[in-house]
Amino acid sequence: HSFPTRRSSDLPKKMDAVSRLLNEQLAEISKQMPSLSTEKAAILLAINAMSDCLEKQEELDRLREEKGSK
pTM here? Predict the structure, then answer.
C-alpha cells in the first residue's frame, strides 16, 4: 500500500483536526471507563482507530470491485 503524500501547507490544519478528534475520543473513553489509565485509554483509542481504518479500506475495496465489474 502506498499512501498519498500531503502538501506541507495542509499539515498544520490536518494535525489540528486530528489532535482535536483524538482528545475528544480520549475524553469519551475516560468518561465511559474512568478507572482506565491514560496509557491504556490511548492504546484502546489506537486499536479502535485501526479497526475503523480497516473497515473503511474494506468498504472502499468492495466499492472499487463493484465499480470495476459494471
Answer: 0.71
User: Whole-angstrom Cα distance, residue 69 to residue 42?
Assistant: 41
Q: Per-residue confidence of the chain (70 residues) as pLDDT tens digits?
A: 455 555 667 788 889 999 999 999 999 999 999 999 999 999 999 999 999 999 999 999 999 999 987 6
35, three cell numbers: 478507572
What 3 state SS string does 12-67 have?
HHHHHHHHHHHHHHHHHHHHHCCCCCHHHHHHHHHHHHHHHHHHHHHHHHHHHHHH
Cα separation, 58 vs 42, in Å, equals 24
Q: Which three cell numbers mark 4?
A: 498519498
- On whether the CB atoms of residues 30 and 36 are closer than 8 A, the answer is yes
Alpha-carbon distance of 51 to 2, in angstroms, equals 19
